[in-house]
Recover the amino acids of this structure.
């Protein structure tokens, strides 16, 4: 009973499996082809959008709006309002003249702290 039931359905199942695997291969080939086609289209669209992005104004803020760290107290201060001290070609920015004086006179800073 069980063997008859099994043999009855083995052959059709095998054919179905073979058929499925064949169509699966076909589907895979089609998927790869579609992947190539859609991938190429997507890259073209992406290139076009990249070009649009280049046309947009840059998001980088002007140098004057950059924040500089006060080396004495650690406050971030805008280059527009900072107290500057040029030292060996490097410009240090301070939040106040007090910080600048402390930086310029390490001995006074040590004494004050
Ligand atoms: Zn400061």
């Amino acid at each position: 009973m069980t063997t008859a039931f099994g043999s009855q359905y083995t052959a059709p199942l095998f054919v179905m499996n073979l058929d499925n695997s064949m169509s699966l291969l076909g589907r895979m080939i089609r998927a790869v082809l579609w992947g190539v086609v859609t991938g190429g289209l997507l890259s073209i669209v992406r290139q076009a959008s990249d070009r649009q992005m280049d046309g947009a104004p840059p998001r980088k803020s002007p140098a004057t709006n950059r924040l500089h760290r006060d080396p004495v107290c650690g406050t971030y201060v805008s280059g527009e309002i900072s107290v500057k001290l040029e030292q060996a070609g490097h410009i240090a920015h301070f939040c106040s003249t007090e910080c600048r004086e402390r930086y310029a006179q390490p001995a006074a800073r040590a004494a004050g702290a």
In short: The two ends are 98 Å apart (CA to CA).
